[in-house]
Amino acid sequence: MLPHMDAAYTLARYWTRNEQDAEDIVQDAYLRALRYFDGYRGESPASARAWLLTIVRNTAYTTRKRGRVDALITEFDDTEHSLAAIDDQPAGVEVRHDAKETLGRALDRLAPEFREVIVLRELQGLSYKEIGEVTGGPVGTVMSRLSRARARLQEALREKGER
Amino acid sequence: MTHPGFESQVDALLDGELTADDARELEAHITRCPECARLRDDRLALRAAITAGVPSYRAPDALRERVRTAIAAATSAEMRPMPRPQRGPLGALWRPMALAASLVIVAVGSWNLALRQAQSDRLADAVLASHIRSLMPGHLTDVPSSDQHTVKPWFNGKLDFSPPVHDLAARGYPLLGGRLDYVNGRSVAVLAYGRRQHLINVFVWPAMPGQGNVPDMRDRQGYHLRHWSTPEYTYWVASDLNATELQDFVRQLQQAIRSDA
After folding, report:
1. pLDDT digits (tens, 9 = 90+) for B199-229
2. Sheet holding B143-144, edge to edge
3. CB contacts < 8 Å between A and B, how many?
4. Residue A103, min C-alpha distance to chain B (Å)
5. Are A146 and B71 a contacting pair at CB < 8 A?
6. B221–A127 CB contact, under 8 Å
7. Do A13 and B57 lie within an 8 Å CB cutoff?
8. Is the pTM of this model over 0.95?
9. Which residue, A118, A119, A124, B184, is most buried by CB atoms nearer than 10 A?
């Protein structure tokens, strides 16, 4: 029985946007957790989850730094990735993307540092403080990243609504 | 946005990350500022879209198996006798075993808890949301009155039960009034009490027989939630009052309820 694996996998999955890489990262992370367990001081199930997510996040982060999954992660770039450029369909061949798809793509297009705060907050329900612990940054950074990420997603939904 | 700093403040408000005072101040601002009100509505719409459209994933079984195997391999590698004078064989054993044990405990413990808590979490969320809503101007009471004999009859015909109403003014918690709200899939009675500038909302609805009515106590982002049940009613209390005074309030209220029975 391995606890928190769904949470770990979900975070890894959104970090890497790739099932195979996500699995590798989760496996690495659990092995690291085994090694670092001496350093774990939390008591409640909730803090165990945050602790594990921290390791998952750091594993994903260093894996990306090492360049193993670099090819799979394209950073968000306003000019290259305007929604119009990607979503354009030939005239008359109106393929209806629902809001769900639009949102998923907009999320994919965010840099992982922005995507992770959305996942940790909206999907895993972590507090700003916990998110700060997982991502290793101050609460102020969590706040501003979350706001910017949401603004981007909102923009994507709005553009979608206008077309 | 004419005031971009407000964007993350509105987010923090909706995320329940503002202190009670800041939340009230911002809510007051939002009622006067159409731009911020629109931002809030947009954010609420986005949250709904994320809930509906951005899935959490379930770890594949193959992955669980892989990790289990990898942990087992790592564990047995560590248990092989190694020249590690600073860590005896027991020490080497202890670590993986403690991890395995704790993972199992966390898993089993959190499984039952998780089921019960999921329900209770949803309820606490709903109560807290209603409490915060009530802090907005004009939302606190439908029947503003400090007289329990005015408040109690007001609920007649509006609910399928007649909520117990207690005046605790003599104990330092004046009744401010009552209102209807919708929580837990049903209409509930809410009684508002005051303490200095603080508000206390008491949510009451008939207890469901057979439901685990474990008293609950949680603190979220500057608000305190307290929950208990009597055989007749389920109570949730939400307030920004400090925990000690709120505890006192709860005690007074429970006493009044008991002396009723």
Report:
1. 999 999 988 765 555 678 888 777 899 998 8
2. B143-144, B175-183, B186-195, B198-206, B233-239, B223-229, B216-220
3. 122
4. 7
5. no
6. yes
7. yes
8. no
9. A119
